[in-house]
Amino acid sequence: MFSNWYSKFKEHTIKSVVIPLEDEDFVSYLTKDSPLILPPGFELPSFNSNQICPVYSDDSDNEDWSDEDSATHPAEEQKEFPLILNQIKSAINRLGGVIFPKLGWSSPKDADWVLSSSSFKCTTPGEIVMLIKSSTFTTYDLTSPYGLCEDVESPKPDKYELVVRKWMDIHPGSEFRCFVKDKKLIAVTQRQHRVEYKHIIREKEEIAQEIHQFLSDIVINKFPSQSFVVDLSRSQTTRRGFRIVDFNPFGTMTDSLLFDWAELSEGKLSENKNSIDLLTSDGVSCGQFRFVGEHMTIQPSDYLRYGMPQDFYDLSVGNDPTKLVDFLRMKTQNQPDSSEDEDETWRLPEEQS
């Protein structure tokens, strides 16, 4: 969980504020599968006439709604959460007014489609709640983050936390994911694994050496787990050349990017033409640094499918055959009755050409 490591590496990571989510009603609201209606006070930013999205007011925009609709679908009374609302507002102000939200483990990286800006950059409590509530990843954090763990009694956490991080523009070509197994760095991959970056290819030996040095000096001996995954951002504005972005579990729940979890778990990395050896200070090979070294066509985002209804995605890839059967049955039932067509004579199926 974020709060377990933030204090240990505070000077090497992005400034953040951790807000404990102790109100069970608020956690229940975030996980409830219902229309996204924001609680009172969780406002969204206003838009002026020069922007794409118009301003909506509570007074005039309801004129088109009929009394019949209001009676059929009465508005659900929203519970207020003044404490968490004030904590979020205070955190946003402390961090300069523009932030990036996440929970204890995951960020809502699959839900950028829900905001008009298609970004994770938030300035109001309403934007934060919309991202968290619309994300599959953060919902998993709130319901069963320990689902793949064998040494815990319940998949649910004993505490929840909202993390508000100061917004920082990080170039995707500067991010790297590092895999540490039994306190030893065994693998590094560029974080954006679908794009070729010329500077990574050009500076690969230097990057690999600097990452190994940073992790050996700053991270590995201080982090409490024997095996873990850490994301770094290379930056010339930091004292040691890198900024810690986040930590992740060493396991299949974390994306292995240019590696495969079978080889990472066994510690036996296969040969790869777009890689170089990671070297210790003594010049001994200890793993691989992999990068995208071939010209690639434009690739879709890994999170594109999260911007469409789950049923649509299941139908497109065949994940759930029962949904396909239901869809075909619905299509058959909705077909017009041929007997109502006066221009066509009904015939037995075998007689139709």
Characterization of this structure:
This protein is an alpha+beta fold and 353 residues long. Helix content is 28%, strand content 16%. It contains 11 helices and 9 strands. The strands form 2 sheets. Strands 7-6-4-5-9-8 form a 6-stranded mixed sheet, with helices on one face. A 3-stranded antiparallel sheet has the order 1-3-2. Strand 6 and strand 7 (242-248) form a beta hairpin. Residues 48-63 and 65-70 have low confidence and may be disordered.
Strand tally? 9
Query: Which structural category do the helix and sheet elements fall into?
Result: alpha+beta
Q: Which regions have little confidence, pLDDT < 50, spanning 5+ residues?
A: 48-63, 65-70
Question: Order of strands in the sheet with the most strands?
Answer: 7-6-4-5-9-8
Helical stretch tally: 11
Q: Briefly, what is this?
A:
This protein has 353 residues and is of the alpha+beta class. The protein has 11 helices and 9 strands. The strands form 2 sheets. The chain has a 6-stranded mixed β-sheet, covered by helices on one side.
Summary tags:
6-stranded mixed beta sheet; 9 strands; 11 helices; 3-stranded antiparallel beta sheet; 353 residues; single chain; globular; alpha+beta
Write the layout of secondary structure elements.
Elements lengths: L1 H5 L9 E5 L3 H8 L35 H6 L9 H13 L4 E5 L21 H10 L1 H8 L17 E6 L8 E7 L2 E7 L7 H5 L1 H16 L8 E7 L7 E7 L12 H6 L8 E5 L5 E6 L19 H8 L3 H14 L19
Parallel strand pairs: 5-9
Antiparallel strand pairs: 1-3, 2-3, 4-5, 4-6, 6-7, 8-9
